[in-house]
Amino acid sequence: QFQLVESGGGSVQAGGSLRLSCEVSGYTYAHIYWGWFRQAPGKAREVVASIYTGSGITYYADSVMGRFTISQDNAKKMVYLQMNSLKPEDTAVYYCAADQFIMEYSVRWFKVNEYRSWGQGTQVIVSS
Prior knowledge:
The model has no long low-confidence stretch (mean pLDDT 96). The longest helix has 4 residues, at 105-108. It contains one helix and eleven strands. Strands 2, 4, 5, 6, 9, 10 and 11 form a seven-stranded mixed beta sheet that branches. It is mainly beta. The protein has one helix at residues 105-108, and strands at residues 3-7, 10-13, 18-25, 33-39, 46-52, 58-60, 68-73, 78-83, 92-99, 117-118, 122-127.
């Protein structure tokens, strides 16, 4: 598929903020389905948020609703995850994911296997 590179992870105290960025290269289509996922030690990978650049529609996991914001710059082929009011339970490796097309996006946006391209991950550590 194409390559994704995340940046922006790090360590922060509870209540703090971080902004993750992800850039795609080698992608030639006009629009893209983006996803941010995370995986904590010993746990399954889970969706955090998703956005489709064609419509701008966004979806969020309940656990981050109101605290995280996904946004995109389609001209730069980048997606961002602004994370505010961070909690220790947000500690995980965060992955950027993307795909050219997701059928029935409104009911599949949270599924890991709908996204065929993945970044290498960036660590986020939130201390109490």
